[in-house]
Q: What sequence folds into this?
């Protein structure tokens, strides 16, 4: 998202025009191949704005009468160039199934994490937090740290794509939310506390202003995907974060605090 704010034209060229190019290439094939689009929860904008949230000590919670998760019937609310470009591509993928009969499906993903992810501030924030903590570098929190996301371990994400592939003949042209769901909803502050417990030492934090397009609360309702394919998230966030930490520790090269990062990538 932050990259899209710096260079919205490039963001559009990659996400929107790039996806259209792929769709057109698929449409020209005698037998179009299956096409799955990795969309994003950002297509829903900020469904739980600050006025509809309750503040608690460590996390935001939906106010009275508000659902605790967003399902696919929630209206699209594109904001930030990234949300706009991904949302446009999302809709093109669905429309090519309707108009041209292409076998397509959309997965609107929440925060994926797991081994082989070398996260940055722009992408892969769970891994970014762990890498910063391992190298004793401060972690910058934009906002107050009480924002909530549902995180999903990579093995569960792969299982979702495979399950959808098996059922694509009857599910083509549909969009599904893919995330950890309410059981894997965690605030940034809670994740930091968990990292500190795993490392046995405190983590340095810096706080900065909220960024444009940041959601204070987002949790996916994944019940439609579960009902359609039998899929469910199996790796809890505490277990998954511990797994990722072990992988990073075993693949890091160099002394803690080294500003460069090299990894040994297993075959």
A:
């Amino acid at each position: 998202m932050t990259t899209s704010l710096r260079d919205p034209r490039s963001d559009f060229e990659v996400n929107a025009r790039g996806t259209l190019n792929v769709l057109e290439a698929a449409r020209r094939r005698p037998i179009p191949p299956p096409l799955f689009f990795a969309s994003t929860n950002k297509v829903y904008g900020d469904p739980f704005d600050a006025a509809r949230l309750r503040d608690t000590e460590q996390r935001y919670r939906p106010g009275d009468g508000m659902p605790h998760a967003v399902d696919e019937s929630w209206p699209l609310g594109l904001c930030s160039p990234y949300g706009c470009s991904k949302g446009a591509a999302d809709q093109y993928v669905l429309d090519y199934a309707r108009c041209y009969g292409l076998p397509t499906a959309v997965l609107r993903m929440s925060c994926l994490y797991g081994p082989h992810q070398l996260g940055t501030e722009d992408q892969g924030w769970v891994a970014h937090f762990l890498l910063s903590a391992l190298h004793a570098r401060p972690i910058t929190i934009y906002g107050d740290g009480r924002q909530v996301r549902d995180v999903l371990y990579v093995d569960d994400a792969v299982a979702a794509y495979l399950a959808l592939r098996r059922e694509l003949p009857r599910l083509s042209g549909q969009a599904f939310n893919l995330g950890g769901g309410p059981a894997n909803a965690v605030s940034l502050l809670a994740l930091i506390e968990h990292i500190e417990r795993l490392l046995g030492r405190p983590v340095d934090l810096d706080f900065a202003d909220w960024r444009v397009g940041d959601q204070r609360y987002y949790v996916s309702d994944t019940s439609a995907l579960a009902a359609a394919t039998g899929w469910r998230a199996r790796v809890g966030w505490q277990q998954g974060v511990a797994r990722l930490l072990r992988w990073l520790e075993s693949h890091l090269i160099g002394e803690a605090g080294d500003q460069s990062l090299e990894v040994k990538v297993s075959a």
In short: The radius of gyration is 19 Å. The chain has one domain: 2-260.
